Amino acid sequence: MRKLRTFSITFILGIFGMNSDLVAQQNPPNHIPPYPIHWWSPVAIEGAPDWEIFPQEAKYGEVILSKRNELGLLSNFAPTPFEFHGDKFASVEGFWQSLKYPENELDPRAQSHAVTWKYTRQVVAQMTAFDAKAAGDLASQNMKILGIEWVSFQGQRLIYKEKGESPFYKLVFEAMRAKLNQNPEVKKVLLRTGDLILRPDHKDPNADSLMAWRYYEIWIKLRGEVSQSQ
């Protein structure tokens, strides 16, 4: 009987101890200054788009770069104008998708009669969010018809879905750095994330193998650069 009582007490204490550990591991982690607690506030799943990853899905020490709060400034979709190599872009998404479009009339993509380009590169460059994404989807269809796997920037062709630290990845990295340096609020929000692990707010199978699609990891690297320079 004494053994059973001892076991029961030990078991109960173990449960309470386990719960204490769970509480201690809840977001937000301790930080000075404190992280905004609304970054992890649960949102309703019902009616949400099927691509979305919700703020409450972050593991301990992570934060979702949700478009539902100010962390959305770090999204490629965000309207954060920047100048890059003499050209102006309304968002990183506009920059990215514009690379799929012909640069000029001499561009082989423009000379083909097999496809029609609904927009010009310059128009797409001034798009943001889902408008830019939709324009890019149209261009991707044309690329498939033309049988090409490259995009271009100022005359340089870049393999679009090349793995590793490809020229395309490096170009996207530099464009995001330009966005960061030219938008003070973006820098403020990025630094506010401290040492949190940044995670995307959407599902994208390309991110599993292609570094350019992992924008959240690029932000972690850029955050490190800025922190070291201060």
Report on this structure.
This protein has a domain at 71-229: Orthogonal Bundle (Tetracycline Repressor, domain 2), CATH 1.10.357.40. The strands form three sheets. The chain has a two-stranded parallel sheet. The chain has eight helices and six strands; from the N terminus they run αβββααααββααβα. It is 42% helix and 9% strand. Helix 2 packs parallel to helix 5 (129-146) and helix 6 (167-182) packs across helix 8. A hairpin with a 2-residue loop joins strand 2 and strand 3. The chain is mainly alpha-helical and 230 residues long. It starts with a helix and ends with a helix. Residues 1-24 have low confidence and may be disordered. The chain is globular, with a radius of gyration of 23 Å.
Spell out the helices and strands N to C.
HEEEHHHHEEHHEH
What would you report as the Rg, rounded to the nearest angstrom?
Answer: 23 Å
CA distance, first residue to last residue = 65 Å
Sequence of strands across the biggest β-sheet:
1-6
Strand content: 5-15%
**How many DSSP helices?**
8
Indicate the CATH class of the domain at 71-229. Answer: Mainly Alpha
Largest sheet: 2 strands, parallel
The global form is globular
| CATH arch. level architecture of the domain at 71-229 | Orthogonal Bundle
CATH superfamily of the domain at 71-229: YbiA-like
The structural class is mainly alpha
Number of strands: 6
The overall pLDDT average reads: 91
Secondary structure: helix percent: 40-55%
Look up the CATH topology of the domain at 71-229: Tetracycline Repressor, domain 2
Low-confidence stretches are: 1-24
